[in-house]
Amino acid sequence: MGTYPARKRRTRSDGERSYRTILDTAARLATLEGLEGLSIARLAGEVGMSKSGLYAHFDSKQDLQLATVGAAEDVFTAEVITRAMEKPEGIERLQALCQRYLSYVKRAVFPGGCFFSSTAAEWDTRRGPIRDRVRTVLAGWTELLEANVLAAQQQGDLAQDVDAGQLSFEINALLHEANGHYLLFRDPAALDRAQTAIEDRLARA
Amino acid sequence: MGTYPARKRRTRSDGERSYRTILDTAARLATLEGLEGLSIARLAGEVGMSKSGLYAHFDSKQDLQLATVGAAEDVFTAEVITRAMEKPEGIERLQALCQRYLSYVKRAVFPGGCFFSSTAAEWDTRRGPIRDRVRTVLAGWTELLEANVLAAQQQGDLAQDVDAGQLSFEINALLHEANGHYLLFRDPAALDRAQTAIEDRLARA
DNA sequence: CCTACCGATCGGTAGG
DNA sequence: CCTACCGATCGGTAGG
CA of B52, closest CA in chain A: separation in Å? Predict the structure, then answer.
């Protein structure tokens, strides 16, 4: 997009590639240092360009942070949601979503665990567009769980009298604790405990 | 302790009072801005003294951070644990610990919710003494839950075949999710949902 | 506990 | 996409 002279001819895909490299790197670093703690110079160094090189893609740090949340959402969708959507709606998809989430933590898709878990903790007491975006993503995830609880109820795989909102809350609690405990204590047993608890909870409902 | 001239005579209690004011303020701010994001100048301004005034009490930022974690632990003990210890060991104390935790979140003892939940999320991928200290506090809390699960089992209030570690993990998950959801969505229903889930879980076990 | 200062780094801009 | 620069703020220190 720029009008700077270029030694090699720049193509549209060159710009897109570096744009994605910046955001993927930013999302990874944000799970280690926080979305606020991440500095422009540090990020520039990591992707091998200058600070002002980044400002060719983003107007401000907040603009970069917002785009980073969007890129992280794309990763989350690809790594957790898409594969679970292959399963039929209802109990099977619900279980697949949980398994994919735990696998996404274990595979260290982001080096600092679930991007939205750490970013929510960092931004939950701040105001503005980034907090709002994180809220929207997490609310969407919870609604996805709820929709599959409801479908499972209609299909007779979960009891009619269970509160879908309550059950989704409990499942989310187990998934987030698995992430947090796994990161703090480097203990893979946390992932198994969440899996066990979710299976038991669903079998009972 | 210093040898600076003083207009008013400094007593030992003056120094102790400002030491505690600094740490209490630091702990409160850390739940809003992070223990790393909190700056010395910002903290100094908040407590009404100069930056170098703080360095009369602490050798470095890390020293301050470590002392802040200790002060936060004292608050947590006073606000959550002490009152629950009035109940007899076992199921009653276990329920009291959970209720006191949820009340500590709701009462906004720290403006950014549970100090150890937010600090754990910030430090779980870092190394060093602060991460270690946060680990120790959270491990101690989990052991306290476990000890009361075991006592409840011996007293016949919980089934013998429940895994105390597993049950403590699930309770912790619900408490932490209550904190996180309450903060991000400003939704008091999250606290009720955790309370309900814990009661159900204990009634079943 | 203060003022005054240090080098390093922050987010961001001018100009090409 | 670069170099060179801006004022502000960072953690920390000297000296009292």
Answer: 24
| Mean pLDDT of the region A154-174 | 98
Whole-prediction pTM value? 0.94
Indicate the burial class of A182 (C-beta count within 10 angstroms; 0-12, 13-18, 19 or more): buried
Nearest alpha carbon to residue B72 among B42, B28, B125: B28
Backbone angles phi, psi at B17, to 5 degrees: -65, -45
- For the segment B14-41, what is each residue's pLDDT rounded down to a tens digit? 778 899 999 999 999 999 999 999 999 9
- Which nucleotides of chain C does any protein CB come within 7 A of? 1-5, 9-16
B52 touches strand C (CB under 7 A): yes
Domains of chain B (ranges, CATH numbers): 60-204 (1.10.357.10)
- The span from the CA of A125 to the CA of A180, in Å, is 19
Length B51 CA → C7 C1' (Å): 17
The whole-angstrom separation of Cα A33 and Cα A68 is: 14
